[in-house]
Automatic annotation (TrEMBL):
Part of the tripartite ATP-independent periplasmic (TRAP) transport system. The chain crosses the membrane at residues 43-62, 74-90, 102-124, 136-153, 160-182, 202-225, 329-349, 370-389, 432-453, 490-509, 515-533, 540-562, 582-601, 608-632, 638-671. It is a multi-pass membrane protein. It comes from Caldovatus sediminis. It is found in: Cell inner membrane. Its main location: membrane. InterPro entries: DctM, TRAP_DctM-Dct_fused. This is C4-dicarboxylate ABC transporter permease. One of its GO terms (cellular component) is plasma membrane. GO terms for molecular function: transmembrane transporter activity. Keywords: Cell inner membrane, Cell membrane, Membrane, Transmembrane, Transmembrane helix, Transport. Residues 145-601 form the TRAP C4-dicarboxylate transport system permease DctM subunit domain.
Length: 686
């Protein structure tokens, strides 16, 4: 990993101002999904025009009517996969002539995958009579679609996701040779292609539909909103609100990353954009390099769980669960707040422990000029949220948000968009959507295998049985715990959640969040739901732990990006980021056991909500103090351990455990406060 890039890596923007070009260079360095081939001559202009046309297609259809579903998805996939072959190179370029820097083989792949995608709607009317009995052309086109989709994903994301898809394909074809609960009748290649290509259960299923009708539009909105100044406004507001307090730049990083992440939906984009400003500022006032990078990485990892945009996986979730977007946004609000609260507490306590200052008046922007110059940039976001709240479709909300961005951007004299800026935004917005679009097509194959073989039920049964057996083994050891926790059912649920969380973190080390969520929503979520957890809570649980992989060494992409800016050791930065983001690892267990935290849940009462949320918030703060080693004053290892134990008991949504946690917390806090008071008291006169 490259170290020592420092603030200069982001370019030469004025102090306190976002350098979007520098952030884009950093994002390309640390995000493999944005490492594009360098095109030359007319081909570069042709591909850029195709990207802009793809963005314009999605923008237009969002406002004036989505095409018939099979045509809309096919046009989307044809363009996305073809452009993937033109823009993503192989590690060892094939020999032979090139056109504009693109090998002829890649041109052939692009043409073939586009033809395979468009073939389906062309013969759609005939398929009614031959689904289940594909002809030779159907099988050839389907085979080309499967093979080229896997190759496109391999280029955009590496080998991990294609390898997982290949395992599922092998399971579909050879499942009849497996004994036990995983055994199924199996399918031949013709039947497999029929299911994942000709029906709506595979490549053209829910994942592709979501990217084509929701995700693309919100990615485009985020790019244009940042370009027209909304990201800068968020950073300036965060500086005004939090910069003057101890450890000010770190608190600015937390607040600005929460705000910016709500429109970007990408951990790495959030890290390099806001981090190019906040990380050097944190180092300047005395934070160690690895801690400065970790703060930005931990805060930025919250973008995919923060309303109103969230990440691509959120839109897949509303399709899987068949719920309105507003329901998910309300449910995600409190858990997201808990994550940022946990990071903020540790940042504050670290600043107090080290005696760090806040930002000076000269370093802070002024409130009135900030509002005067930046308020127009908020109009598109307010309009987007308003359209969603009114109950309209997410893509229509994105259409009006993008339209407002364009209008405000062209009219705003302080940060005016030019036609060149708009072209750039449409180009970049489409580039950002290529990898996730290809991944959606690939994981559609996984979903198809699950529906073809019943793998979701089979895997869920295995997980719950393993958890139940383990629970029986450990129950005698924890008989003193409350009955709702120590029961076989309670232990089975806890162990199932632990198993699923571990799988999410391990698989998330090599798979993007959206693809990981889709795979585990198909095979792991049913196991959690079978044990009584509401589907919304189960799916959010999987999403949280999938995102946690961005902070978990050894593959902690957000932490690596932050470490590059900070000039710090990436592994140490990742470990610290994981510690700062511990709320993200504990809060999902809370809403799994007490879904009332999600608000939009059956049986919601304000009393239960307040008790659960307040004890969780106190527990998250206590956990931060225990991990930092500071609460009013420095603590020894014993006090730290006691505080961490008290925190975990408080976070657990159980009345008896919370009372026990308070009983452990109170004396530690009281003793520390008395010690700190004595140190502050003036010495008595002689």
């Amino acid at each position: 990993m490259v170290q020592g890039d420092g603030a200069a890596a982001a370019g030469a923007a004025p102090a306190g101002r976002l350098d979007l070009a520098g952030a884009a260079r950093l994002e390309t360095r640390y995000d493999a999904e944005l490492r594009f081939r360098e095109l030359r001559g007319p081909v570069a202009g042709l591909v850029s025009a195709a990207l802009v046309a793809l963005s314009a297609f999605h923008y237009y259809t969002a406002g004036f009517g989505i095409l018939t579903e099979h045509w809309h998805k096919s046009i989307h996939l044809a363009a996305v996969l073809a452009l993937t072959f033109l823009l993503f190179p192989t590690r060892r370029p094939p020999p032979g002539p090139r056109i504009g820097g693109v090998p002829l083989l890649d041109w052939a792949f692009a043409a073939a995958v586009a033809a395979a995608a468009i073939y389906l709607p062309v013969v759609f009317d005939e398929l009614t009579f031959r689904i289940g009995m594909p002809n030779a052309t159907d099988v050839v086109m389907g085979t080309a679609m499967v093979v080229l989709t896997l190759e496109a994903v391999r280029r955009a994301m590496g080998w991990v996701l294609p390898a997982i898809v290949l395992v599922f394909i092998a399971y579909a074809l050879l499942g009849h040779r497996i004994g036990g609960v995983l055994s199924h009748p199996g399918a031949d290649w013709e039947g497999f292609v029929n299911h994942v290509y000709l029906t709506q259960e595979g490549i053209f299923g829910i994942p592709a539909k979501v990217v084509a009708t929701y995700v693309f539009h919100f990615v485009l909105f985020g790019v244009i909103a940042t370009r027209m100044g909304l990201g800068q406004f968020f950073i300036d507001l965060a500086s005004v609100a939090a910069g003057r307090y101890p450890g000010g730049p770190a608190k600015v990083a937390v607040v600005s990353s929460a705000l910016f992440g709500s429109i970007s939906g990408s951990s790495i984009a959030n890290t390099v954009t806001t981090g190019s400003l906040t990380i050097p500022a944190m180092k300047k006032i005395g934070y160690r390099a690895h801690f400065a990078g970790a703060v930005e990485a931990a805060a930025s990892a919250g973008g995919q769980i923060t309303p109103p945009i969230m990440g691509a996986a959120a839109f897949v979730m509303i399709e899987f669960l068949a719920i309105p977007l507003t329901t998910l946004l309300v449910a995600a609000a409190i858990p997201a707040l808990m994550h940022f609260w946990g990071v903020f507490v540790q940042v504050h306590l670290e600043a107090k422990r080290l005696g760090l200052r806040g930002m000076s008046e000269e370093e802070l922007p002024r409130l009135w000029p900030t509002i005067r110059d930046g308020w127009p940039t908020v109009i598109p976001l307010v309009l987007l949220v308003g359209v969603i709240v009114e109950g309209y479709t997410p893509y229509l909300a994105a259409f009006w948000g993008i339209t407002a961005c364009i209008v405000v951007g062209f009219l705003n004299p302080r940060n005016r968009l030019t036609p060149k800026d708009l072209w750039y935004a449409f180009d970049v917005g489409a580039r950002y959507a290529l990898a996730v679009g290809a991944a959606a097509a690939a994981v559609g194959i996984v979903v198809g295998v699950v529906t073809l073989t019943g793998a979701g039920f089979r895997v869920g049964f295995m997980v719950t049985q393993a958890a139940a057996s383990t629970a029986e083994m450990f129950r005698p050891l924890i008989a003193l715990l409350p009955a709702d926790v120590a029961s076989v059912q309670g232990l089975t649920l806890f162990l199932t959640l632990v198993f699923v969380a571990l799988v999410c973190v391990v698989m998330g080390a090599g798979i993007p969040t959206t693809a990981l969520y889709i795979v585990l929503a198909a095979i792991a979520a049913p196991a959690v739901v079978q044990l009584g957890v509401p589907p919304l809570a189960a799916h959010l649980f999987i999403l949280y732990f999938g995102i946690l992989a961005d902070l978990t060494p050894p593959v902690c992409v957000s932490a690596y990006a932050a470490a590059g800016i900070a000039g710090a050791n990436p592994f140490r930065t990742g470990l610290t980021a994981f510690r700062l983001g511990m709320a993200k690892a504990t809060v999902p267990f809370v809403f799994a056991y007490a879904p009332v935290m999600l608000v939009v849940i059956e049986g919601f009462t304000w009393g239960d909500f307040l008790v659960t949320t307040l004890t969780c918030a106190i527990g998250v703060a206590a956990l931060g103090a225990g991990l930092t080693g500071y609460a009013f004053t420095h603590m020894g290892p014993f006090s730290q351990a006691l505080l961490v134990l008290a925190a975990l008991l408080l976070i657990a949504p159980s009345g008896p455990l919370s009372i026990t946690g308070f009983a452990l917390l109170a004396p530690v806090v009281a003793v520390n406060w008395l010690r700190a008071s004595r140190r502050r008291a003036p010495a008595a006169p002689a």
